[in-house]
Amino acid sequence: MAFPVTTGHPQYAGNFIPELWAGKLIENFYDATVLAAISNTEYEGMIKAHGDTVHIRTTPTLTIRDYVKGQTLQVERPDSTPLELVIDKGKYWQAVSDDVDKVQSDVNLMDVWSKDASEQMKIVVDQDVLTNMLTGISAYNQGATAGEVSASFNLGTSGSPLTVTKDGAGATTAIIDLIVDIGTVLDEANVPESDRYLVLPPKAVNLIKKSELKDASLSGDSTSIARNGRVGMIDRFTLYTSHNLHTSSGKTNIIAGTKRGLTFASQLTNVETLRAESTFGTLIRGLHVYGYKVVKPECIATAVIQFS
């Protein structure tokens, strides 16, 4: 039963539809976060609540053998161990609409609050995923001897990060050279060239805009990136910028790869309104649960950088 109100005053929850706004919050979350661009979400429809486990089938690797006429063929029985995506993360938000302020939980109010909630969710979830996914990246795609074939590319380490600049002056590394090296590391891991991404901190994007890529022909855009502020594509990478990359003592882990590498599943399972117990107002709150897993370690690379 709704909280009783006097004649002429609306029920505060009357214009609030949980199912509608749950979807709205999810939509706003994906509009705000970089995760939608760097991960696949194909298992998202399988989760319902915190603690759910999604079993992901993996494709076995078949053996290619030599053939000579008349030989007996060897039979292979492919098998693979399924991966488990555990929905073990949960975040919530809660706000109160005070009666004294005569603020009702109508559509306009929820527009404002849903956008703010999605932005705050973006920050905490991005930081979580962009930090903890690092442990799942292939050893060939990071470090001072990166490259599965050549082991000849220095992508920096936490103890010896690369100092990046716009032109590589002195003992520094040119930001464009680093991007090309990361692309080659992914090439050596046989990562598809399509839909590659690279996530950089804003200062690295600043260096790109000041580099020789002020020439629009190098960025693949019809307009110079120095004029329109759009980074565009560089060496098959679509560039994204984020404040939420893992940073420690001035050293930042930038991340590159394809969506095939990371699976992310997110669901806002509960949005509700109720009368506040400790004040005269209406509480509006939401629960957001999610999980993620690096399912193809070879499809992601990381470099550790710092700025001079």
Task: Describe this structure as you would to a colleague.
The protein has 308 residues and is α+β, with helices and mostly antiparallel strands. It contains seven helices and 13 strands. It has helices at 18-32, 35-38, 107-132, 175-188, 202-210, 216-219, 225-228, and strands spanning 53-56, 83-86, 89-98, 162-165, 173-174, 196-200, 233-234, 237-241, 247-248, 251-258, 262-275, 281-294, 300-307. Strands 4, 5, 6, 7, 8, 9, 10 and 13 form an eight-stranded mixed β-sheet that branches. A three-stranded antiparallel β-sheet has the order 3-12-11. The protein has a two-stranded antiparallel sheet with strand order 1-2. Helix 1 crosses helix 3 (107-132). The N and C termini lie far apart (63 Å). Mean pLDDT is 79; it is low at 1-6 and 9-20.
